[in-house]
Design a protein that fits this description.
Distance between the termini: 78 Å
Helix content: 10-25%
Oligomer: single chain
Radius of gyration: 21 Å
Number of strands: 4
Largest sheet: 2 strands, antiparallel
Strand order of the largest sheet: 1-2
Shape: elongated
């Protein structure tokens, strides 16, 4: 009998530990281990286990004082194997990339406020939130695109999955291949995910094809010579093509930008350059 229990236990442990991620990107499997972010004890051979050499223990056994500091310890450009989230980012066009403005840290007027301890209601939303990296991203990995949380508000909303097609998938050491805009074709879920915090937009049409629109100019879109803003391409994997649809990140950078309202300036300097990719000048 004991041998049967042992076999069942081993099978259960194997099943739980063999986690696979179909659509996620980072922080799963061999790309990251627990001890990269957490410490079991607060010292080793009398030395602090925090990566900033601070001897004080941190919440959740983190190796930095909080989640934001821990994320930035790898994602500030100092680790070549981790995607850089602070501009300038050499492998991403700053006009369409997703990095925070380089202001010596995260707080700016034109980005998600990641270190504001006071809960804020997102523009268009209703739920006050204190934002940090782990509000939107699951630090332990999940099945969603770029480890985005299916319900970032944590209020029991219907989970949203973002579907993409990527030529290169993350392996823990290739951000220069994964994070270039041309690597990703967005298929579905982008705007619905943003709407969980910001509500449905009332000032601009989204998730509607540019082809045949009375407002958009499909000829302008197909003849774009500037860095092309991101769009949804639900029916095929070609951009530009007749199924292309405007989504939130067609106009706004996900993390932030140096421009008002996190806007993308396709030519790097003017708002019109983005608008005129879809609208006849």
């Amino acid at each position: 009998m004991s041998r049967i229990y042992t076999i069942i236990l081993l099978a259960t442990v194997t099943f739980v530990s063999a986690r696979t991620v179909a659509g996620g990107d980072w922080h799963y499997g061999a790309t990251m281990v627990c001890s990269d972010c957490h410490t079991q004890h607060n010292s080793e051979n009398g030395q602090p286990m925090r990566t900033d050499n601070n001897p004080a223990p941190a919440p959740m056994l983190l190796r930095r004082a909080n989640a934001l500091e821990l994320c930035l310890s790898c994602h500030d450009g100092s680790n070549p194997n981790a995607p850089d989230i602070i501009t300038p980012v050499g492998y991403v066009s700053e006009s369409v990339g997703g990095a925070f403005p380089n202001s010596g840290g995260i707080p700016t007027a034109n980005a998600h406020h990641l270190n504001n301890p006071v809960a804020e209601v997102p523009p268009g939303g209703t739920v006050p939130m204190v934002l940090t990296c782990t509000t939107c991203h699951d630090p332990h990995g999940n099945d969603n695109y770029r480890n985005l949380r299916p319900d970032p508000t944590k209020t029991g909303l219907a989970p949203i999955t973002i579907l993409t097609v990527q030529g290169n998938h993350a392996n823990g050491s290739n951000p220069t291949q994964v994070y270039v805009p041309a690597n990703v074709i967005y298929k579905s879920g982008v705007s619905k995910w943003c709407e969980q915090c910001h509500g449905a937009p009332t000032h601009h049409s989204i998730d509607k094809p540019l082809w045949g629109s009375a407002i958009a100019d499909y000829t302008s879109w197909t003849s774009v010579t500037l860095p092309r803003v991101p769009v949804l391409s639900p029916s095929d994997n070609a951009v530009p093509s007749a199924d292309d649809q405007v989504v939130c990140i067609s106009c706004h950078k996900a993390h932030g930008s140096d421009n008002d309202h996190l806007l993308i300036y396709a030519d790097g300097s003017t708002q019109n350059s983005t608008c005129q990719e879809c609208h006849d000048p």
